[in-house]
Specification:
- With 325 residues, this protein is α+β, with helices and mostly antiparallel strands.
- The protein has two domains: 2-233, Bira Bifunctional Protein, Domain 2 (BirA Bifunctional Protein, domain 2, 2-Layer Sandwich), CATH 3.30.930; 241-322, 2-Layer Sandwich (Enolase-like, domain 1).
- It has twelve helices and 15 strands.
- Helix 1 crosses helix 8 (213-227).
- The N and C termini lie far apart (51 Å).
- The relative contact order is 0.15.
Length: 325
């Protein structure tokens, strides 16, 4: 596998690396490639999340922590120079298969270092029952992008202060605070962060490509979208009914419905779930549908929901939209 390096060593803002992933997926012929990166204190939240639900903006402003939205699903994370970000791009149409392959590769590297790592839930890598890595993915035509965090160490106060996980999410993990369900790799390794990065790079990759200045220019063009306030902050959906629910194996859902005379005129889903397909195509099915169980169930007949949202079932989505029986 190819390792992708840059023609400079200066740390970039997080939006640059997201654009770099997208550039590699869209414009390079490499079958699969990988790169590591680090950022100054930053919060990154998922494609379908409402920023006010996930980020303590006052804390971030006070402490100089930047905020960005990514195009993959999943939850909100804090990163800094003690944390290493992994990016993996390959060819194919089955993004969930790619995701599983990537997770297995990372777990394998950690085990080669003597760390008893294992996977848990949808996207986490754990050591001693605590999270050291969270991961997410998204799909472009013919290409897959998977990226994740690796906590070598962290600034605990910033991590706790900058993100606002829901009470329900913490309860579902059986813990009372962010720090109680997270650990750092330095507690399990005898090597420093630079040696760890070298080990990962040499064990996953056997070739290297350095991007040109022209390719960097194209990456910066793509980056403009990630810097657009409309993309970062989004628009709050209009709604007359709002339902929040945590669905086991899927994540947190925030359903906003605009109803008129008992008819669903519009619907939006926010949350930390993982998209596999086109969410808008799924939600379009419900427009102008009566807001009752029978009508919603009829719209879901013969629909393979896990082709849109990982692990979601028709029963769970119906209960989210209309409530439990």
């Amino acid at each position: 596998m190819y390792y992708i390096s840059l023609p400079f060593i200066e740390t970039q803002r997080l939006s640059f690396y997201l654009a770099m992933e997208e550039y590699l997926a869209r414009h390079t012929p490499l079958e699969e490639c990988f790169f590591l990166w680090q950022v100054k204190p930053t919060v990154i939240f998922g494609r379908n999340q409402l920023i006010e639900n996930e980020v303590n903006m006052a804390y971030c402003r006070e402490h100089g922590i930047e905020t960005y939205r990514r195009k993959s699903g999943g939850g909100c994370v804090y990163a800094d120079m003690h944390n290493i970000m992994f990016s993996y791009i390959n060819s194919g149409e089955n993004v969930t298969c790619t995701f599983d392959k990537y997770i297995s590769m990372v777990v394998g590297v950690l085990r080669q270092l003597g760390v008893e790592a294992y996977t848990s839930g949808r996207n986490d890598i754990l050591v001693d029952g605590k999270k050291v890595s969270g991961n997410a993915f998204y799909h472009l035509p013919g290409r897959n992008i998977v990226h994740g965090t690796m906590l070598y160490d962290t600034h605990w106060q910033n991590m706790v202060g900058s993100i606002t996980p829901s009470e329900e999410k913490l309860v579902s993990k059986g813990v009372e605070s962010v720090r109680q369900h997270v650990t750092v790799l330095k507690n399990y390794l005898s090597i420093d962060i630079e040696a760890f990065k070298d080990f990962v790079r040499t064990h996953l990759c056997d070739r290297q490509v350095t991007l040109t200045t022209e390719e960097v220019r194209q990456i910066r063009e793509i980056e403009r979208e990630y810097l657009d306030p409309a993309f970062i902050y989004g628009n709050n959906p209009r709604y007359t009914l709002r339902r929040k629910q945590r669905i086991e194996g899927c994540g947190e859902f925030d359903a906003c419905l605009e109803l008129k005379n008992g008819i669903i005129k519009d619907i939006e889903l926010k949350g930390d779930f993982f998209l596999v397909g086109d969410l808008n195509a799924l939600l379009e099915r419900f427009k102008n549908t009566p807001h009752n169980r029978e009508a919603v169930e009829a719209k879901l007949e013969k629909v393979e929901l896990d082709q849109y949202i990982m692990n979601l079932t028709p029963k769970a989505l119906t209960e989210l939209i209309v409530g439990e029986e």
